[in-house]
Amino acid sequence: MALPTPSSIDDLRRFVESERSARGRDRMGERTLAVLVDMLARPGPAAVQSISELAAHNGVDPSTLTRLGKRLGFNGFAPLQDVFRRHVSDTQPFYSARVSDLVSNPGVSSVTSALQQLARNECQKILAAASSLDERKVGEAVAQLIKAKNVYVLGLRGTYSVSHFFGTFLGTLRDSVTVLGGPGFPIASELARIKKDDLLVAISYRPYTRTVVRAVELIKAEGTPVLSLTDAGSAIELAPKQGVTIAVDQPYYFDSALAQFFAAEAILMAVARRLGPKAMLTIQRREAFNKALDIEIS
Questions:
Q1: Which of 12, 126, 251, 264 is the most exposed place for a label (fewest CB within 10 A)?
Q2: How far is the C-alpha of 37 from the C-alpha of 13, rounded, in Å?
């Protein structure tokens, strides 16, 4: 009899025990089972590493992890990884688990090899993000960013860097863009300025910032559209009538951030192309003020 889809680490451990005692053609292959055993032995890395990183660690193709997820009753790898993410969230600090795996990685023997591995991992994540971005949703996001009377961009803590990047360059393409959460600006007062014909761009990746999650809930309740840049199954994922979610299902930390910036770049590029000459006029006006104030050094 087939076991129900696992919902916890304990369920996955019971599945491994069942497979080890099973016989016959329906038994999971040893190599695939070994991947699951490794993930259970390293729940921290299993929760935060990309599918490519986990596959490389186990010496298998990423498709093996996708098949593993489906074999367990999920529709792919991401729902299986969510089991580990919930477990780590409940039992282990995200940052400690992430750094612990980095400093204890036996496959990195020098600064050069560490840099090369980081470059390979980030390239794989960018390619994965590029292939997973929903062109229709990007188009909907662009339409919202152009239509809104005012655009407010909110990302706090580690993701403030993404929000500042996105908001700053969006402000060179269209008028009335404000990056929220700067020093000396209380969030409550900033959010109170947002009206129904505006747009809130909310940015948060696991582990989510409670203030951003709450802000999205409040703005949705006001009937104002929201564009969220986040990961799959996010706390700020939106229903279709509430706005648009652009998901990049990659861990976000100091060793894993380029995929999220790539998604922001892709949206900005699409906005520029959609605005066309109008974007050029906005940029030229900004450049004229930069020159008059002697801000930039060539």
A1: 126
A2: 8
